[in-house]
């Protein structure tokens, strides 16, 4: 009989290939100075929690001085820390503490655009002939916008300056796009990377990594972009995925590799074509390229199975690990998206079994649902730019519940910057810590087993589907024992699946196996060994 004893994961080199990365929405994670806004001291104080969860790295959403137009993604100064969040010394301290606990720290860098309050844009506005004006996309004054390009947040991607020129912004008008054909832009970002790397930061999540370059002739897109489209396809052919962008990632990779302990990059590559996404993760480019097809999939076995198969093939083709993500700060929380906590827990087990890295979004380990945010409390520009037609992303950015019995569920002594809905304390970390059946306990167990079984997270996977049941067989690459199968039943009725031993179940009501068969209830995933 095959030896099924767990094996301590061998060399984790390079660490990022199978890492579990935890995304912290800084403003909502933990408030250290009692002003209702999360900050670096708060995050530092909660690092032991993250170490206890078992993750390998923390990715912190933008912390820079910003214009406040898009949750920090409109950066005024790339080597600063917004005083709301602390100081550069706090970042240094965070990195030291994190390293002491065996955690890596990734920051978020925003190279596609700056804030309209960035000193470059101010000078560019004041003087059309300034060198700073050449760092953006300005077009001459005219009645109509220069072309049909649309902002991803709704409306045209062009706004006018007071002197009548047009400037490009793929997001809000407060986020003018940089012109990456200008060497001054390229060199300035080199300096930004080194500034944070020299401080000890381990890498970056790269915002809009499929953007940066635009069609040099500013030709119309062949269709009109709509945020409801599945991915970014031909209707964005002139505004995203231009060939020049790959040279930037090669340049950044060389900077990463110049450090004794090489730094890592994970880019947001929101393209529909997964083979195109894979090209961003070629060996001399980004370490990880996020694909969002799984994140955008409905609760549907065929869609999950096909996406996983296709993504694995796309990343295998370039020798890169697949980064998996089910939730982030831009998407409604999976409990609400899938329709139940039960499904979200099952999906988590599936994701944590897959080969590659897994990105968790703060609060998903607590099973937080999408929150209803009253209109007057909303902050997201998507809500305002769509005239209230799109709810926006505030509902997944609600401050974390830590201690159920404390004011504002332990997030802050002051009123949180976004209101926590009624019942939020019920999800608090301290309540879940004392409950072995909690979602937090499930995530902890899963991450622990991932560390013990090489087949999980770093195995080779084969995916098959029968009706609503998806089976993922995982075999350790190095031939070590401990093959694991993940079964997920996405249908409405129970299914019998072959199994030798149950390792972990997303739902406490799974028992067995009996006579080599396990009864898998609806919306449940299990890990079994043979
Ligand atoms: C980030 C968003 C942000 C946008 C513009 C995205 O992809 O994840 O939160 O609004 O880039 O910077």
Short structural description:
Helix content is 26%, strand content 17%. The protein has 530 residues and is α/β, with parallel strands linked by helices.
Bound molecules: beta-D-glucopyranose
Count the beta strands: 20
Helical stretch tally: 16
Biggest sheet strand order reads 11-10-9-5-2-1-13-12
CATH superfamily of the largest domain: Glycosidases
Note down, in words, how this protein is organized:
- This protein has 530 residues and is of the alpha/beta class.
- It has three domains: 19-110 and 267-445, TIM Barrel; 119-168, Alpha-Beta Complex (Oligo-1,6-glucosidase, domain 2); 185-266, no CATH class.
- 26% of the residues lie in helices and 17% in strands.
- It has 16 helices and 20 strands.
- It has an eight-stranded parallel β-sheet.
- The termini are close together.
- 51% of the residues are buried.
- The structure holds beta-D-glucopyranose.
- Beta-D-glucopyranose (BGC) binds next to loops.
- Residues 70-71, 73, 110, 171, 207-208, 268, 329-330 line the site of beta-D-glucopyranose (BGC).
């Amino acid at each position: 009989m095959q030896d099924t004893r767990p094996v301590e994961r061998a060399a984790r080199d390079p660490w990022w290939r199978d890492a579990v990365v935890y995304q912290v929405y800084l403003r909502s994670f933990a408030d250290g100075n009692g002003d209702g806004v999360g900050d670096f001291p708060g995050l530092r104080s909660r690092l032991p929690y993250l170490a206890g969860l078992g993750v390998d790295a923390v990715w912190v959403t933008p912390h820079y001085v910003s214009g406040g137009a898009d949750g920090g993604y409109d950066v005024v100064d790339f080597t600063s820390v917004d005083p709301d969040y602390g100081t550069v010394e706090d970042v240094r301290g965070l990195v030291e503490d994190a390293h002491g606990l065996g955690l890596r720290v990734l920051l978020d860098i925003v190279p596609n655009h700056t804030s309209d309050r960035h000193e470059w844009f101010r000078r560019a506005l004041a003087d059309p002939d300034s060198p700073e004006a050449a760092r953006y996309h300005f077009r001459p004054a005219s009645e109509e916008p220069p072309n049909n390009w649309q902002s991803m947040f709704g409306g045209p991607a062009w706004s006018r300056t007071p002197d009548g020129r047009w400037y490009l912004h793929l997001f809000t008008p407060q986020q003018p796009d940089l012109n990456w054909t200008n060497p001054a832009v390229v060199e300035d970002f080199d300096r930004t990377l080194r500034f944070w790397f020299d401080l000890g930061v381990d890498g970056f999540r790269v915002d809009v990594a499929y953007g940066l370059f635009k069609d040099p002739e500013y030709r119309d897109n062949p269709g009109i972009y709509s945020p409801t489209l599945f991915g970014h396809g031909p209707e964005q052919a002139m505004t995203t995925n231009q060939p020049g962008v790959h040279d930037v990632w090669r340049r950044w990779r060389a900077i990463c590799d110049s450090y004794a302990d090489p730094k890592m990059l994970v880019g947001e590559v929101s393209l529909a074509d997964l083979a195109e996404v894979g090209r961003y993760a070629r060996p001399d480019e980004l370490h990880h390229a996020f694909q969002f097809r799984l994140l955008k999939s409905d609760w549907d076995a065929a869609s999950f199975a096909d996406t996983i198969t296709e993504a694995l093939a796309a990343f295998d083709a370039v020798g890169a690990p697949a980064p998996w993500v089910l939730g982030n700060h831009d998407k409604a929380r999976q409990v609400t998206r899938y329709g139940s906590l039960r499904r979200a827990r099952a999906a988590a087990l599936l994701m944590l079994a897959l080969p590659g890295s897994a990105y968790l979004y703060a609060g998903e380990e607590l099973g937080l649902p999408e929150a209803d945010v009253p209109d007057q409390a909303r902050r997201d520009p998507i809500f305002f730019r769509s005239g209230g037609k799109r709810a926006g992303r505030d509902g997944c950015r609600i401050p974390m519940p830590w201690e159920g019995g404390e004011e504002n569920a332990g997030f802050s002594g002051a009123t949180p910057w976004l209101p926590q809905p009624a019942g939020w304390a019920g999800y608090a970390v301290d309540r879940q810590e004392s409950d072995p059946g909690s979602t937090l306990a499930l995530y902890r167990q899963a991450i622990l087993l991932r560390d013990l079984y090489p087949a999980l997270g770093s195995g080779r996977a084969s995916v098959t589907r029968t009706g609503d049941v998806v089976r993922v067989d995982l075999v350790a690459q190095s031939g070590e024992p401990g093959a694991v199968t993940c079964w997920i039943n996405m249908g409405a009725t129970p299914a019998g699946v072959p199994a030798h031993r149950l390792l972990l179940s997303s739902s406490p009501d799974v028992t067995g196996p009996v006579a080599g068969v396990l009864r898998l209830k609806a919306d449940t995933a299990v890990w079994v060994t043979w």
